[in-house]
Amino acid sequence: MRLMIAVTHLLGSGHLARALALAEAFADAGWTVEVASGGRPAPHLRAAGVTLHQLPPLASDGADFSTLLTADGRAADAAALEERRHALTALADRLQPDLLVTELFPFGRRALAGEFEALLEWVASRPRRPLVLASVRDILAPPSKPARVAQTEARLLRFYDGVLVHSDPAVIPLEASWPLTPVMRGMLHYTGFVTPPPPPAEDGEEGRGEVLVTAGGGPVGRAVFEVAARCAAAGPPGRRWRLLHAPGDAAFADGLRGLAPEDRLVVEPVRPDFRSLLSRAAAAVGRCGYNTALDCLALGVPSVFIPFEDGRETEQATRAAILARRPGIAVLREAALTPAALAAALEGVLGMAPEPLAPASLAGAANSVGIVERLMRERER
User: Fold this and answer.
1) How many structural domains compose the chain?
2) Percent of the chain at pLDDT above 70?
3) Residue 205 domain-assigned (yes or no)
4) What digits encode the pLDDT tens for the residues 216-266?
5) Could you give phi then psi for residue 279, rounded to 5 degrees?
6) What is the pLDDT of residue 203?
7) What gap in Å lies between CA 304 and CA 324, rounded to an integer?
8) Domain holding 334: CATH number?
9) What's the domain range around 329?
10) Residue 200 is assigned to a structural domain of this protein
11) Do the strands 283-286 and 329-331 form a parallel or antiparallel pair, or are they unpaired?
12) Crossing angle of helices 315-323/290-299, nearest 10°?
């Protein structure tokens, strides 16, 4: 059986990371898995047994998801979008998948509706139509107008067989962020959260007892990194902070290193063994994206979340507010972010492990395979 996942990450790389974790679970189950990625290349993300197909990349203009930029920083014009549409449908025609998964669409990525609908139209024209599922995280950006809900429902009814919701409804139900209609509710399949397996317990000592900071690249993370570096400089002796920045932020990283002594502050590019470092950390500081939050919960690391809230973004603030009901988790809004405030929030969670989630809640990738294979068996009856 062949799976094709269509995903485009526009700001951070979380959408691609989740899609690759899902893809790897299907590969482990014996599927042939192909991922069409339309965001910027993210070489630090890997998935064993998965073929990654890079489309002409796009990125958002900061938090403005209606303005798409090409690899050279130009606004994407009609020709650039048509090139992507053709590449995506040509790939599907060559691969002939048995299962198509669209990540986020039709609940989001409206700026790319043309290419997703071209792909879905191709699927609908097949003599033997593949199973088609949407894949969404726990929290969605709420629709700005009621018409968006009706449009999403219409696309689901026309093209889709179901929606994989990568959450546990007992922790974060989808209706916490999206106004579900009865039709939508009937199409949902909760999988649990999609997280990689825990790193080996004997995986080294580097980073043990440190405060580990991740916050994304470019302007998304700069405020967090700067305040964390200043907090490291002013903090108690013996506490070491490790800041993992995006690979393209080398010049900014050089400036951070000058803010605190080397014995208190390490600044380096994000690493493939991030989760191993996280498992040994005394605490984590960072944004509250899906993957970051779930890594902290799954590994039981005390955490201070500083949700990204630029523009009309509400996803991370919503998630942080829900998770902060658990011990060992604090939320610091960016408007209140200072070295003193971060230090106080950190002291409030150190030594308090977050309440663990049930194993089934963290098996979203494997559960997704089981759900899909059940749906395919039912389809054959």
Assistant:
1) 2
2) 98
3) no
4) 766 778 999 999 999 999 999 889 999 999 888 888 999 999 999 999 999
5) -65, -20
6) 65
7) 9
8) 3.40.50.2000
9) 211-356
10) no
11) unpaired
12) 20
Q: Per the domain annotation, does 275 fall within a domain?
A: yes
Question: Largest Cα–Cα distance in the chain?
Answer: 68
pLDDT at 359: 87
If asked whether residues 92 and 148 sit together in one domain, one would say: yes
CB 176 within 8 A of CB 137: no
pLDDT tens by residue, 36-76: 999 999 887 889 999 999 999 999 887 777 789 999 999 99
Cβ-based neighbours of 241, under 8 Å, separated by 6 or more: 210, 211, 212, 213, 228, 229, 231, 232, 235, 260, 264, 265, 266
